[in-house]
Amino acid sequence: MKLNLKHILCKSLSAAALCLPLLAEAAPETIVVGQAIDLSGPNADLGRDYVAGIKTYFDVLNAKGGINGRRIQYLVRDDRGQSDLAVKAVAELVDQAHASYLFGGVGDDVTRAVLNSADFKRSGLTLYAPLAGADYQKDAKVLFWRPSYQEEIRHIFSHFGKLGIKDIGVVYQESAATADAYRRLTEQMQQSGIKLSGTVHLSSDRAKVSAETQQLANAKPGCVVMIADSVSAGLFLKDFRKLAPQTFVAGSSLTNLTTLRQLAGGKGVEWTVFSQVVPNPGMGSSSIQLEHLNMMRKYRDEPVSALTLEGFTAAKSWVRLLQTGKRVAGQSEYAIPSGGFDVGGYMVGDVANSNRLSNYVDIALFNKANGLTY
Length: 374
Known about the structure:
Blueprint: H1 5-18, E1 30-37, H2 44-63, E2 71-78, H3 83-95, E3 101-103, H4 108-115, H5 118-123, E4 127-128, E5 142-143, H6 149-161, E6 167-172, H7 179-192, E7 195-201, H8 206-219, E8 223-227, H9 230-243, E9 248-251, H10 257-264, E10 272-276, H11 287-299, H12 306-321, E11 341-342, E12 347-348, E13 362-366, E14 372-373
Parallel strand pairs: 1-2, 1-3, 3-4, 4-5, 6-7, 6-8, 8-9, 9-10
Antiparallel strand pairs: 10-13, 11-12, 13-14
Family: Belongs to the leucine-binding protein family.
Signal peptide: 1-26
Pfam families: Peripla_BP_6
């Protein structure tokens, strides 16, 4: 596997730059927004892009004078994708940096750890827009921007249903982070009448994984759905493509495509599709897409992605959700307008009694140019 050292160095320097505000004390007239997120662990590409999108919108906002004259101070901590580090980082952001608002990190395991931590509970804050897809109790102190895994899976099934596909294979890596997605997948299969062609259980038993991969290829499913971390998914694809080069394989919007392609190879990622929770970030089809493109060019010297657009849009939505006036004890930081609101051409918050603002789901094909075709 060839590594682009220049690319890695640039990414590392970008991550360091994002953390520079950590050294500064908050000025009296600033709004402190904290976030613990993976900047150097297994989902660093996702985390860095998400942060870049959020920071870009806050740069735009601060250039206009902030919110009612108060600038945003955006403090980012690297949790490396580890639950214990996320809990420690959130505690420091709340207790020492005095963050008034918290954005979430990557993954359900990290999200649950933060929500269950004593320091977070004591803060009374709501965790905003984590990159997580499991279902949470409505009274949990979390407000998601993105739709759930269930909605992504439903859209994937709808897409392949239109192609006449009636049977699928499942690739599953059992873990706390994937349990909810797997449960939702099996429920959706039952509801849709989709038949199971076979299952590959990803584990350390390479002989068993190899045998199950061969069996799945022999079964010739209409498509294969992967519920696994990006490393395991990439290794599976590398082997599976030797046996089934033209079988559709699908993954979720939180698949790290850079890691996937490095491990599976260019041929391995052909015929793969991924659900997406934002429209094409490279097109200016709506005002939010165009604003994101223009502001990323102005403030960031890096390519746009689905995660930069999601971060940008989540931050723009965040401003619309802020309670006006001084909050009383026990009052939420956020107020969702009745009927939702428009954010650059897309409605969010329009589903009553939901802790997820957006229900937008699309699907995109991984193309030979190492990008997505929507």
